[in-house]
Design goal:
The protein is mainly α. 52% of the residues lie in helices and 2% in strands. It has a single domain, classed as Ferritin (Up-down Bundle). The protein contains eight helices and two strands; from the N terminus they run βαααααααβα. A two-stranded antiparallel ribbon has the order 1-2. The protein is globular and about 55 Å long.
């Protein structure tokens, strides 16, 4: 899949125009699980039941064709490490934002959701670090996004609406980053893993959007306009500096 490929929303999850949209309370109580999962992400997931994934797995008696495996080149493996280490650093950044601004939320349900989401991001960062051969930079909040996105916004994060929208924007950036990584990673297991993480972030966008009131998707394809810029990726220079 090409890095710029978009993720299709599950058509069954989109609220028809003839019915009332989901409320913030219903989204928060569900934790965002299974509400607006993307078909692109969920369709490439594992067959077994995974945490945070709703619905029953499809069954079939057909035997999947055997595809000859190929050994990835060292260049491809280097790109894998760049993707995974970058994603780890973004997960750390988002986790830090939840940790800093989540307790400032006046709404108790939003605070509880922020705490759960922070825990999920910490766990995701750990998985990515183990898979990508973490470096000093990847274990820290992404320096570029911290300086150019988070710190400039700090003065405006003064109420629940602003904080929730900012968190939703970061989740959208993570979703787009995972969609891009899915088209690059050479290992099938890691493609499944990052798509699972991307689906979770997409659902959090639905929970936190609309200033924390909940936001139903309006497009059949998940937009990837929030993909992080190239300067945010941890390339060879960062790896060399860290001894990675």
């Amino acid at each position: 899949m090409a890095p710029d490929q978009q993720a299709a929303m599950d058509p069954d999850s989109v609220t028809p125009s003839t019915t009332a949209p989901p409320t913030r309370r219903s989204l928060l109580r569900a934790g965002g699980l299974g509400l607006f999962a993307t078909a692109f992400l969920a369709g490439c997931g594992k067959d077994e039941k995974a945490a945070g994934v709703s619905g029953l797995a499809a069954t079939t008696t057909a035997v999947a064709p055997t595809v000859p495996g190929t050994e990835p080149t060292e260049v491809a493996l280097d790109e894998d490490r760049v993707q995974l280490r970058t994603a780890q650093s973004v997960e750390v950044l988002v986790s830090d934002v939840y940790g800093r601004y989540g307790p400032r939320l006046a709404d108790a349900e939003l605070r509880d959701a922020a705490f759960r989401f922070q825990t999920d991001h910490v766990a995701a960062a750990r998985v990515l670090g183990e898979a990508g051969g973490e470096t000093k930079e990847s274990k820290q909040a992404n320096a570029y996004l911290l300086s150019n996105v988070v710190e400039p916004a700090a003065g405006s994060l003064t109420d629940d609406v602003a904080i929730a929208n900012f968190m939703a924007d970061l989740e959208s950036a993570l979703t787009a980053t995972y969609i891009s990584a899915a088209g690059v990673l050479t290992d099938a297991g890691m493609r499944q893993q990052v798509m699972s993480f991307g689906a979770a972030s997409a659902r959090r966008v639905a929970v936190l959007g609309g200033g924390g009131q909940g936001l139903a998707p309006t497009e059949s394809l998940y937009p990837v306009v929030d993909l992080i810029p190239g300067d945010a990726f941890l390339g060879p220079k960062e790896d060399d500096a860290a001894g990675g």
